[in-house]
Amino acid sequence: MTAVAMGIPTVRRDASSLAGRPATAFLVDRFGRTARDLRVSVTEKCSLRCTYCMPEEGLPPIPADELLTPDEIARIVGIGVDLAGIREVRFTGGEPLMRSDLEKIIAACAQRVPGVPLSMTTNAVGLEHRAAALVAAGLTRVNVSLDSVDRAHFAELTRRDRLPSVLAGIGAAADAGLAPVKVNAVLMRETLRGAADLLQWCLDAGVELRFIEQMPLDADHAWARENMVTAQELLAELAPRFTLNSVGRDDPSAPAEEWTVDGGPRTVGIIASVTRSFCSDCDRTRMTAEGTIRSCLFSDREVDVRAALRSGANDHELAELWRGAMWNKWAGHGIDAADFVPPERSMGAIGG
Predict the structure, then answer these.
(1) 249 and 221 Cβ atoms separated by less than 8 Å
(2) What pLDDT, in 10s, does the model give residues 339-352?
(3) Which residues, other chains included, contact 167 with Cβ-Cβ below 8 Å and sequence gap of 6+?
(4) Which CATH class is domain 4-350?
């Protein structure tokens, strides 16, 4: 793996060794974890340019014939559920709404794996026009990325003045029955002072908020450990306005630690990806928009499933490729290690 073009590197997409792997159909790794949560990126395109994710000019376009088709996505999702133990699927990007055939993707997957939750991470720009159709296709829930309800701060962070569209999209999602609507906010120095306002807005709107520590996944590689906002700083910022009490995690694999707000029952989640790493309980596996399996956000090693699929591999052969990719998953991101090197792909190119 060598050349990098604004976050999408040329990556060696090689097969992975199964040596020493136990005889199980599930997506296990060498550290005792089992992947059950599949994240499927459907595009590298996005309608925003968030500073912690995308370069200002956007990512270079992936040729249309290199993107997985709705039928190919549905086949891979089906293999994951039927042959590898996947229990939940989330569609990501870039921005999934940039795919004009997103409804077809959702519908194909819903037909292929009936009863399996199909969710989406989105910035909600334009969602107000498509929420009902996405629900009709089979989408069950959305996570909306929203870092500030201050219009000027939002425009500065995203390089686009689209806050009204995002808020309209959140409202449309709730009206369409995509419940619970969850909001994800990345902690940034620029918006820390607005964190309490964002929490109050989410409480008033009836949506669930989760704050996320910023990880070194920006396309500009400007992240620095000493500059990031920590979960502890956030708690100190919220304390003057809210009484927060930790209730921990119901599910060890869930990334968010939950805190009751003013005695409950409402809660706020904090995903301390850096300072309180949950790598040891990670249950995720990722498919990039080009059809490669990525076992970890921070490992640029990818296994090319698209090539095998288009070369005539059967479902069991594709499942075995997938198992090999996950068997060789890293122990963790190692952000605090002296020799830590951030991944070549940015978050927008990986799919969260």
Answers:
(1) no
(2) 677 777 767 777 76
(3) 149
(4) alpha beta
